[in-house]
């Protein structure tokens, strides 16, 4: 059956409803409506019979049915015009009467012409096909009778004939399937919790027509979907009307659509022919179906393909299983959770030993070490467990050591695990794939601040910040990273600590694996997968030749001057120094990075690190972005060469040590092109240096979580280019200087969590371009009268007691929101 049949039935039914209403209405169209209704009532039983017969129509009959569909559609549109027309408009009514007469003539011609011939043809075909089927049945019976002897030979005498062997093999495969994927085994591996959540979405939430199961490659998505289909409660709810289809990366969409169409209409037993008759347009129509049904689309890779496979049918639910999220299609999505340690051990032992626990003869500590390196990923546990099965103990020891270094166990492990997971990156655009590979530059199990990635991508991938953020969202939707946000994130003025990135260790290993192909001197990214006491020996052996790396990422402990060796990086644009130390000497080879544009230094030690060789910054003429975290800032002198290209500076958890004091340095001289300055969690910052106010290029000034900041400089108003001013969580700050009102380009003011701030400046109304104020957890009791003059102000976030003060303003376009009290500093919890 084809889709046109469905449309004809629905249109005819709808048209009769309109005609019945017209016939009750006095007017010139009344008699025509009754006559037309009688003709359609003749057709309707035949249309319904075709609709639910499941028979594919030949092209000539389909042509006539399409013509009838167009005629009925014209009648439906005409009936709507009749119902809307003015009964006193006689001329208009006569026109409508003539049009209804034409439609009636077309329908009568179909009834008296093609329809009669189709009925005669059906009788002829039925007689011929019945005789043909009886002939085939008789021939099949003879073949079966001839084969009986062979079957008996195979089954008798205890000889184990080929039939018995085949049955035995099938039984063994079914047993293996049940032991590997059955309810009893997987119920102990946390799958029951996933089943419960997905079942709730599929069965209990009637408003969810399309539900998703999403997770990274090898996380058990398909296994969960299979368990849902085998669940007794699910089968009972859908009356065993469940269709499971694997879509794959290169699907035959027409084939899949035909199968779904037959399943929905109750003709899924008919297979093989008629795919070319399914229309090419997207099947987005609705009609009533009595029995609930479930369609499972597994391994979906493409949104355009998915959109063609979604049928909006009453009672029909679709379960989409994919590595990617499709928020525009799926009403709700369940993210597959990775295994806990005890669950991971059970799955690994099942793959490695055929048991669900560690055997007494095995080295328990070694098994647990290898399991921990798999990071709860079912695919990794199963692949690595299978590779280690029946191997000698020394092989296991070597495997544990290689895994701990982020290396493959063997070529088989590399090809079967990482290459399989690499499929997730093959369909990314070039830029997005490169950004994914960049994620291998950061330490394992550490949150990556948003700004670090954004700054890096802006510098090396020629994208703007908005496009870089869009890439992050795309990678998140494809389960290649996770965005961690607090409630303030998602706004165009969101700051770096409101969003951070985390990545599953297996995905990080994948990024490192894909970045580490080829000769070490030729790699685009030179990375250290784990923290080491010294630089890799491989680097030292090849230090006599230049390294072509664009990104260099180093992860060490304490480094002294003698711990470095000379390396040449003529193409390096990003240097990431991850370390854990109290003292850290900057690498001398920074001098040999003439193209360096972004420098990131992050100390993971509990205390701030003292940085040696700080004067090397004078050689970074092309540096555009600088991120320093948990270090003590060295003193700069007037003799320091100005960093004319530096645009962004971020000082996080740093000790300032008066290094920014005006008596020591003129910041406007050293950083003449600075556009963004961020200072966060710097406890020894008491006064903001006045020389900052002479940086005329500064557009964003963010001073946050500086608990000892007492006041702002009185010449802050000189920052004529400033658009963003953040002063969040500075509890010692008691007032904003009046000069804030001179920041003529200011668009966003954040004074949230400044609990001792007394009030807004009296002439704040002068900020004609101010668009947003965040003043949550500020105990302001009144607003200055000039606030009514904030003509561009569109959004205010505040406490409930201030809410009504803003609502009384004359600005009708102002959106005032009461702040939610759910903030923390979880982003700092990386140690």
From TrEMBL:
One short Pfam name that applies is LRR_14
Q: Kindly state which keywords UniProt assigns to this record, in alphabetical order.
A: ATP-binding, Leucine-rich repeat, Nucleotide-binding, Plant defense, Repeat
Q: Would I find Repeat among this entry's keywords?
A: yes
Domain RPW8: where? Answer: 1-149
GO BP of this protein: defense response
Top-rank taxon: Eukaryota
PROSITE patterns given for it? RPW8
Query: Coiled coil located at which positions?
Result: none
Q: Which InterPro entries match?
A: Apaf_helical, LRR_dom_sf, LRR_R13L4/SHOC2-like, NB-ARC, P-loop_NTPase, Powdery_mildew-R_dom, WH-like_DNA-bd_sf
Keyword Metal-binding in the entry? The reply is no
Molecular function terms from GO: ADP binding; ATP binding
Give the UniProt family note: Belongs to the disease resistance NB-LRR family.
Q: What is the official name of this protein in its record?
A: LEUCINE-RICH REPEAT-CONTAINING PROTEIN
Source organism per UniProt: Salix viminalis (Common osier)
């Amino acid at each position: 059956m084809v889709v046109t049949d469905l449309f004809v039935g629905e249109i005819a039914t709808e048209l009769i409803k309109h005609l019945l209403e017209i016939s009750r209405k006095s007017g010139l169209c009344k008699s025509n409506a009754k006559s037309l209704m009688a003709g359609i009532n003749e057709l309707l039983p035949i249309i319904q019979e075709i609709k639910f017969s499941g028979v594919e129509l030949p092209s000539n009959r389909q042509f006539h049915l399409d013509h009838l569909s167009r005629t009925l559609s014209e009648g439906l549109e005409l009936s709507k015009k009749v119902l809307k027309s003015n009964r006193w408009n006689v001329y208009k009514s006569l026109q409508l009467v003539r049009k209804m007469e034409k439609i009636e003539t077309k329908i009568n011609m179909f009834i008296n012409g093609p329809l009669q011939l189709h009925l005669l043809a059906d009788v002829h075909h039925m007689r011929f096909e019945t005789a043909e089927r009886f002939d085939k049945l008789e021939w099949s019976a003879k073949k079966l009778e001839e084969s009986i002897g062979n079957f008996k030979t195979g089954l008798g005498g205890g000889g184990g004939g080929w039939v018995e062997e085949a049955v035995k093999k099938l039984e063994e495969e079914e047993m293996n399937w049940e032991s590997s994927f059955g309810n009893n085994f997987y119920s102990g591996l946390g799958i029951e919790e996933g089943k419960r959540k997905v079942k709730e979405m599929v069965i209990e939430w009637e408003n969810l027509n399309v539900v998703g199961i999403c997770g990274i490659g090898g996380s058990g998505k398909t296994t969960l979907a299979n368990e849902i289909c085998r669940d007794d409660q699910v089968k009972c709810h859908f009356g065993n009307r469940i269709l499971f289809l694997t879509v794959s990366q290169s699907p035959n969409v027409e084939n899949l659509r035909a199968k779904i169409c037959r399943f929905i209409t109750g003709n899924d037993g008919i297979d093989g022919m008629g795919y070319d008759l399914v229309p090419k347009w997207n099947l987005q129509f609705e009609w009533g179906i009595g029995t609930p049904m479930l369609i499972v689309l597994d391994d979906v890779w493409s949104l355009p393909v998915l959109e063609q496979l979604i049928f909006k049918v009453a009672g029909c639910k679709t379960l989409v299983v994919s590595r990617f999220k499709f928020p525009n299609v799926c009403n709700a999505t369940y993210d597959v959770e990775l295994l806990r340690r005890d669950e991971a051990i059970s799955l690994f032992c099942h793959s490695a030993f055929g048991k669900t626990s560690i055997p007494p003869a095995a080295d328990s500590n070694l098994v647990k070490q290898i399991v921990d390196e798999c990071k709860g990923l079912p695919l990794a546990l199963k692949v690595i467990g299978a590779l280690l099965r029946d191997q000698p103990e020394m092989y296991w020891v070597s495997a544990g050591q290689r895994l701990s270094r982020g290396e493959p166990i063997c070529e088989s492990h590399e090809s079967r695990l990482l290459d399989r997971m690499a499929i997730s990156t093959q369909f990314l655009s070039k830029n997005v794939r490169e950004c994914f590979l960049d994620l291998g530059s950061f330490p394992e199990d550490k949150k990556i601040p948003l700004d670090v990635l954004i700054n890096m991508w802006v510098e090396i991938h020629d994208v703007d910040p908005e496009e870089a953020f869009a890439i992050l969202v795309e990678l998140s939707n494809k389960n290649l990273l996770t965005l961690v946000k607090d409630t303030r994130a998602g706004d165009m003025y969101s700051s770096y600590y409101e969003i951070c990135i985390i990545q599953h260790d297996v995905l990080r290993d994948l990024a490192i694996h894909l970045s580490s192909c080829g000769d070490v001197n030729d790699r685009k990214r030179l990375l250290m997968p784990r923290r080491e006491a010294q630089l890799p020996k491989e680097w030292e052996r090849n230090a006599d030749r230049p390294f072509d790396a664009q990104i260099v990422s180093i992860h060490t402990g304490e480094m002294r001057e003698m711990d470095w060796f000379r390396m040449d990086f003529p193409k390096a644009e990003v240097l990431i120094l991850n370390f854990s130390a109290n003292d850290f000497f900057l690498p001398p080879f920074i001098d040999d990075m003439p193209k360096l544009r972004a420098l990131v230094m992050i100390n993971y030690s509990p205390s701030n690190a003292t940085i040696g060789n700080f004067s090397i910054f004078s050689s970074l003429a092309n540096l555009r972005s600088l991120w320093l975290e948990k270090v003590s800032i060295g003193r700069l002198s007037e003799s320091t060469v100005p960093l004319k290209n530096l645009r962004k500076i971020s000082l996080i958890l740093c000790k300032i040590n008066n290094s920014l004091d005006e008596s020591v340095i003129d910041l406007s001289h050293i950083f003449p092109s600075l556009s963004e300055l961020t200072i966060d969690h710097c406890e020894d910052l008491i006064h903001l240096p006045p020389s900052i106010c002479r940086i005329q290029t500064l557009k964003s000034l963010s001073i946050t979580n500086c608990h000892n900041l007492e006041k702002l400089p009185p010449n802050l108003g000189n920052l004529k280019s400033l658009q963003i001013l953040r002063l969040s969580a500075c509890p010692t700050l008691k007032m904003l200087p009046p000069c804030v009102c001179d920041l003529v380009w200011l668009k966003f003011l954040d004074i949230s969590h400044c609990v001792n701030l007394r009030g807004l400046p009296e002439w704040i109304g002068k900020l004609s371009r101010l668009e947003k104020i965040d003043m949550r957890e500020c105990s302001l009791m009144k607003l200055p009268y000039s606030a009514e003059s904030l003509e561009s102000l569109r959004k205010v976030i505040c406490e409930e007691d201030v809410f009504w003060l803003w609502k009384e303003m004359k600005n009708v376009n102002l959106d005032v929101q009461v702040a939610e009290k759910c903030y923390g500093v979880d982003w700092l919890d990386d140690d």
